[in-house]
Design a protein that fits this description.
mainly alpha
Length: 103
């Protein structure tokens, strides 16, 4: 698990972890904010992936001919933050469902 955190990049994975901590705190203090914090985590993951893919395309353009397995490995690493942000969003929805008043 720590290996995925390091592969995902310390900046955005750290930011997503901070958002997860805020989500857990909001579950007790402000349940109405849980969905918004989860959505923020999802958007953060998507933005970090887009930035990573843009940087990878620049590197591929400069390097020229790159084998497909190297590109596939890079895409796998780029998607780690989207997966982490998506999991945080799912957790936020579950917390929201639990706290939602029953009709």
């Amino acid at each position: 698990m720590l290996e995925l955190f390091i592969m995902g990049g310390p900046l955005f994975m750290g930011l997503l972890t901070i958002e997860l901590v805020f989500l857990i705190i909001a579950a007790w203090k402000a349940p109405a904010w849980t969905k918004e914090i989860g959505l923020l985590a999802l958007i953060t993951g998507i933005l970090s992936t887009l930035l990573g893919i843009t940087q990878a395309c620049d590197a591929i353009e400069q390097a020229g001919d790159i084998p497909m397995p190297v590109i596939a490995g890079g895409m796998k690493v780029a998607l780690i933050t989207v997966i982490y942000g998506g999991l945080i969003y799912v957790v936020s929805l579950i917390i929201r469902i639990i706290h939602k008043p029953r009709i």
